[in-house]
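Support request, please re-run this one:
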Amino acid sequence: MSDPVWYYARGESEQGPISTPQIKALAAAGALKRDDLVWKEGMESWLPAGEVNELYPSAEPKKASKEKATSTSETPAPSAAPRPRQRFLVEEADLKQLICNVGRGLIVFGVLMVLMSRGCDSLGHRKVARLKAISQSAEAEFQNEWERAKARLEDEQLALNEKQDRSQSQQERLQRIPAEIATLDQSKRDEQRLLRQGRWRDYQLRAEGSVTANQIGSYWRRVAFLFGTMALAVGLLGVTPTTEGPERWICLVMLVVILYSVYSSGSVWDGGL
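Re-run finished. Output below.
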């Protein structure tokens, strides 16, 4: 069996390959420190030199290194040894960047969901109010029109009554006014009955239907709002620890505001969108 080939690393610098006597000599001379990482063929991962009995037999190992026997006699190239610190730093940076990107995506998605749910809820309430106003204004406009016509006849009747010497035509006119007022009232009642069975009824049904539809839609808009705030909170939780400077503080403040105003105050749970 050939002598195993060793590699050792200190900081970002990796050295090797060297033989077993050479690395033992470095350890004995103090050139290889206990916290320097070492690796040889058959070891699963890099270990501090102080934990390898072969280099520091007097030290109590913190971990038992698992070695695998090998029958190859070829000397591996330096690139065969894993690069622990560089690899770990790259993997950690990639993981942080991935979490940060996912968090930012959730923030954008959450903001859109919140804005859409609040906007649709406002539009739903406005639609209900508009249809109710149309129904009420149609009846009020009809009532005002007939009241104005009746008021003209009553004013004419009052003026003729106050006149002392009336002509024959004025006297006849005064006698016809009560009949005209009665006819006007009857016409009003007939037309009002037709409108209540027709156009006014349609307005009323549309207004009532919009109220029901808005109540159903309000439930799903509230669900969308909650889902959006949750996505926003999760996104902020992901971005906050992976960023630095002003961005971290902005995310932290937004997270506190969301958790307090949306969830702690209970405005969403009691229907107060």
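Confidence is low (pLDDT under 50) at residues 59-80. The CA atoms of residues 17 and 97 lie 34 Å apart.
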